[in-house]
Amino acid sequence: MLAEILQKLLPYHAKLIAISKTQSPDKVLGLYREGQRRFGENKVQELAEKYEQLPKDIEWHLVGHLQTNKVKYIAGFVHCVQSVDSLKLILELEKQAAKYQRDIRVLLQFKIAKETSKFGLDWEEAVTITRHVQSNKGSRVIIAGVMGMATLSLEESIIRSEFKLLKNYFDRLKAEYFVQDESFKDISMGMSDDFEIALQEGSTMVRIGTLLFGAR
Ligand SMILES: *Cc1c(COP(=O)(O)O)cnc(C)c1O
C-alpha cells in the first residue's frame, strides 16, 4: 500500500506522515524498512515510547492535542507538533525548546470542521500566536505551516470546502506574515478517506493511518 500511496502523492510533491497510533513498534519497523521515515502519533506517552524503541532517524510528528504539562516529555526529540491550538502551548514549547537547545517545528491547527469537539484555532488566535513568535527573537519555535481535519462526512462538497478554507488561511498567513520566510510552507490535510480531495485542494502533507496499517 505504501508504494501506491506514494505514487498518488508524487504529482503533488506532497509528503506522507504515516500515522502509527495504536500500532506495534514492529509494524512501524516494517514500514521503516520499506523506506518510510516520517511517522505521527496522537498521544504523548505512546510517542515517547515508540521514540525510545525505534530507529533514531525517524522524524516524529505529534498530531493530537498536546497538554502544556506534557511538552517536556517530547521536546527533546519531536520534529514537529502539528496540533498547536493555543498561545499557552506555544509559550511552553518555546521554554522547552530553549532548554533542549533545539528547534521545534509547529503547525497551527485551524478549526475547519463543523463538529464542536475538534480542537483548533480561529484566524485571530493564529495571528496572535504568529505575532508573538515573530516578536520573540530568541524563539526556537518555527512556524512551518497549518494543519486541519475535515468533518467526518461522506459528502465530498463539505470536505472540499473545509480544505479550501484551510488553504485560504495558509495563503493569508503567508501573504501577511511569512512572505520572506521559507520555513512556512506546509499545509497538513488529508487522511485515509479524504487525502485525494486534500491533494486537489493544495495539501503538501497527508496523514494516513488506516490505509497503511489496516483498521485500528
Ligand atoms: C488518526 C489520525 C489520522 C489518520 O487517520 P486515518 O483515517 O487512520 O488515516 C490523521 N490525523 C490525525 C490528527 C489523527 O488523529
Oligomer: single chain
Q: What number is the mean pLDDT? A: 97
H/E element sequence: HEHEHEEHEHEHEHEH
Cofactors and ligands: pyridoxal-5'-phosphate
- CA(first)-CA(last) distance: 16 Å
Q: Taking Cα atoms only, what radius of gyration do you get, to the nearest Å?
A: 16 Å
% residues in beta strands: 15-25%
Number of strands: 8
| Proportion of helical residues | 25-40%
User: So how many helices?
Assistant: 8
Shape field: globular
- The low-confidence parts are none
Biggest sheet descriptor:
8 strands, parallel
Strand order of the largest sheet: 7-6-5-4-3-2-1-8
Structural class: alpha/beta
Question: How would you summarize the topology of this molecule?
Answer:
Layout lengths: L1 H8 L5 E5 L5 H9 L4 E4 L2 H10 L5 E4 L17 E5 L2 H14 L3 E7 L12 H13 L5 E8 L7 H22 L8 E3 L6 H6 L4 E4 L1 H4 L3
Parallel strand pairs: 1-2, 1-8, 2-3, 3-4, 4-5, 5-6, 6-7
The protein binds pyridoxal-5'-phosphate (PLP).
The site of pyridoxal-5'-phosphate (PLP) has 14 residues, from strand 8 and helix 8.
Structural features, described:
The chain is an alpha/beta fold and 216 residues long. The protein has helices at 2-9, 25-33, 44-53, 87-100, 123-135, 156-177, 195-200, 210-213; strands at 15-19, 38-41, 59-62, 80-84, 104-110, 141-148, 186-188, 205-208. The protein is globular. The mean pLDDT is 97. Bound molecules: pyridoxal-5'-phosphate. Pyridoxal-5'-phosphate (PLP) binds next to strand 8 and helix 8.
